[in-house]
Structures
1.
Amino acid sequence: MKLVLASKNPKKLAEMNRILSQLGIEVCSEAEVGVDVEVEETGTTFEENSFLKAKAVMEASGLPAIADDSGLCVDALNGAPGVYSARYGGEGLDDEGRYRLLLENMRGQSPRTAHFVSVITCAFPDGTVLTARGECNGTIAFAPMGEGGFGYDPVFFLPERKKTFAQLSPEEKNTISHRGKALEQFEQILQNYLSQQG
Ligand code: IMP
């Protein structure tokens, strides 16, 4: 079976393929099936945005499509930046600008607890929708630490490991991350779905 990934990110494609190839699933890019879909992420939940992306690519390609939507929710900021994680602070900021803004907004705030969320949705042409969700709990560090990862990784601290996400190897991060957990759950859900299909 072939799934089209609703994303232009080659790292996401490689990650999905690494896990789903074990189920005999081939994940391919939008470009490989000749579509180029720009989806406005107008939803207010990870589930909505993930579904919007998967549905748009499924409709454009006529093939089952998979999408993920993720972000960081900080308790003291009422769940911000949440679904707006990629756009926090507006267009002008890069990853570092965004996590520095977060540190500034966290000055004097307590508690510093936060969690990452990842929601994976697969939309099929027959209307079937499969959804999986993964979360990872941590706290917001007082200063950035580590060189690895991307996004908010340098300020997402794991108290039990005494490290930020940016201080973990990619393999270590995958075993505990929101995305790793969502993919693991998705693998199960997809396996059940495929076995029902015969
Ligand atoms: P998406 O591509 O629309 O899902 O945007 C997710 C945004 O959330 C990214 O641009 C990052 O800012 C943030 N994010 C999601 N997952 C991670 C992670 O594992 N580490 C750091 N930042 C993340």
2.
Amino acid sequence: MADGTMGRAPVKGVQVDVAVVGAGFGGLYMVHKAREAGLTVQGFEAGGGVGGTWYWNRSPGARCDIPSLFYSFTWSEDLAREWRWSEKYAPQPEILKYAEHIADRFDLRPSFLFETRVESAVFDEAAGRWTVKTNRGDEVSARWVVMATGCLSVPKTPDIPGADRFKGETYLTGLWPHEGVDFTGKRVAVIGTGSSAIQSIPLIAQQAAQVTVFQRTPNFSLPALNSPLADAEIEGFLEGFTAYRDMLRSGQSIFPSPPPDLRVQGEELEALKAGLWNGMGLMSLSAIPNLMRMPDLNEEICEHVRDRVRQMVRDPEVAERLVPRGYAIGAKRPCVDTNYYDTFNRQNVRLVDLRETPIATLTETGVRTTAGESEFDVIVFATGFDAMTGALLKMDIRGRGGRTLGEAWAEGPKTYLGLMIAGFPNLFTVTGPGSPSVLSNMISSIEQHIDWISGAIGWADGRQVRTLEADAGAQEAWMAHVNEVAQGSLYLDAASWYMGANVPGKPRVFMPYIGEGYKIRIDQVAARDYEGFQTE
Ligand code: N01
């Protein structure tokens, strides 16, 4: 549903304190904080409603891979107490409703222009302001710009020969039709085996006549063991709410901080392995200390998971093809599934291993691999996103001296703390590269960043500071630190989207920050009058 901005006249000549790009969780909270501080704000959103990635990603089975109770904001205790999740892992429609509830509860929609894509943001050095332009002819001048554009919001164009030749139905998981898709009686190809595919394949297979899964790299997946949330679980969470919120605020949580340097073995290791099957998904993996720094330990866990896959899939040849190899568990984002492996025991599901028989081309009627051609009615591209930098680089962002963000990031993204970029004053990134971001609980990291950004704006405004900007030297030192802590980790060995490796031509740089105490560090920077930032 559009939010009433269709057919409107362009907004011109308006000056605001803050421009917010995106009406996902980050953009919604930022608008709330800015208004609470008495600032004028203009939000922009390409979609017809709020929700960001949860507005677009409506493919079957889409749901969060962090338990819902933790996939929640903590900044409003009232909100936490009045919102009720129905399942352990909330489905996409419910997460979207949560975003809509926040928008209504805090009356945030009037601050956004919907169906409006920001095309450029250009910094005027003389005025110390940004000019933001959109595809609807809007031109708004803002002192501050907050890019709440999401880390997984730009679906990758399928880089498959003949991708536009197929004449049947095609869908991208990241841009799913709002009215849904009826697969009944259809022959369906799914290309890709990341989280989006692993969540949707079991449901598509229940409906379609046949499903053929084209797998290039098998993924590690753990069972969600999803279930309705019992009252007692919700009450237990709410009883501990204040302590949980304080733990997040103090930066002492296991998410996003990795576990401490401990060696696990013997019974303790066996218990941690068993824990992978308890339905806590990614949280159970992150409970294994040093998983990403100890190759032997990691391989032991990989083999444990592989054995489980072999037990779940009846045909041993299919099982062997589904078993992930050649990279560490955790180095590509593991999935949390419902009946994924069991789906390959169905008569109507076939697996094509693209490592044995790569796709030669899509044809008008199907997919041709080196082993021959198969016909389909529908192709689902579950081929992923231009992650972390895609949405930012899609816009024409120009900082000091007219330098584009594309030029500044030609060798990969560079930020100070994942929050600001040298040469781009007064512009913030939410969960940007160089922060824990996609390796953390995103909603908690979004909350941390918006709190920090609001604090920085308040501090600068209180001192009549015209511009706040990451110092080039501080940024260089931070990036050196980000790279240093990543060295020796198993993340660097996998061709993952964390590394930009899934997008042809994208610089291969490990983008998230995996050091400890990130939140403590950014709070210290603020407490030291924004150490590492320059002001004018
Ligand atoms: O994308 P992906 P996704 N030919 O990049 C394959 C979040 N998310 O949308 O690995 C053939 O993981 C590609 O193969 P390979 C979550 O953070 C969360 O599934 O490059 N295959 C891979 O198998 C997740 O990690 C949820 O060899 C091609 C797949 O397509 C992130 O979003 C749900 C190909 C892409 O997998 C991205 O997930 C959904 C080609 N040309 C998503 N190009 C939750 O649970 C790509 N592939 C919260």
